[in-house]
Amino acid sequence: MNKKVILITFVVLAFVISLVGYFFYSVNYRQHIYRDISQNIYVSNDWTEISIKPDIGIEKNIQEVGIVVPEARFSVNRKENYLPNGTVIGPEVEIADKTGTWYRLRPGSGTLNDYDEQSNTFSRKSINFGLEVENLPKNTRFVAVRLRSDMPFSCSKIRWHDYNMK
User: Rounded CA gap, 97 and 101, in Å?
Assistant: First the structure.
């Protein structure tokens, strides 16, 4: 009888621990929603418009569009993004909702890696742009994104990021 109680207690305890672990995993995992919008885009001084199919919506508190520019770097001193040849890039990004209203996205964060002490730069994995408009209705759906830049460049990916801060 004593072994049976210990075994049942162990099984119940293992189940409860697994359930709590799954809950914390799912809460943290669902903090971020990523969706690739497009790949291999050439950005010039003319607007390049990309349809988003299926459309995307607001599910979390913060929305960003990230562009991945291969081998781009971020200068800590100049606070600028630049290409391997030294060309400074400052893209503009906008996103359109279903009504056709375009929202300018503000330059924001990005993913930085591989700090180089000599040049005081980081490798820039993505350049992110966030919505300037606050309190858009949660049912807002976005159908297109457009980009342009005074200095042309290629980006390997455009990605939607919808998330909550932890």
Answer: 6
